[in-house]
User: What shape does this take?
Amino acid sequence: MTGKIFINYRRGDDPGFSQALYGRLESRFSTTQLFMDVDSISPGSDFVHVLDEQVAKCDVFLAVIGPGWINATNKNGARRLENPNDFVRIEIEAALKRGILVIPVLVNDAEMPTEADLVESLKPLARRNAVRLTHERFRSDCDGLIKAINDALDKNHPIQTTPGARRGHPVNPATTTGPPIGRVSSLTGDNRWFIGLLLFCGLVIAASIIDAIWMYR
Assistant: This one.
């Protein structure tokens, strides 16, 4: 199955849970389909542009929300979500702007943010239906999330089939190569008239030859 999954999370907000989620997804999807950290942004690059490009490649965006996600602050005490250059905010904004499927993933007892908790550009996140993953039911909770991801990837990347390859599906002769097997071309009226004329002429010539032979015997 093709398609990419972007995992957005806040470092320091129950990071072990995000790593466990990644490991669970890794057991069901190829590592090339999973994107979790942007650690390779080269010096001098516009990190907003780089993050936007990475998010644009994904089909499903998981926003992992731990208990400290809403009120996480920087060293100056300012709420991180208020910072336009916050990586978590930039990634979510990019996914919402592009219409990518965004699934909030609530960790244990974390609360779903309301519109009042979010800056204007993130308010649509509050209207996304969330899933909850708990330590007690981690495997079964992840299975439900994986099913939702698979459904989304199937929708975005349907399996392509060759016309006529499905059982019971008629093959269009116009799309096949080579002459159709067992098919006899029909003769038009002009063709039948021409063939009849040739046969008649052949009979006249044959009769003339026979008469000549009898005359000289």
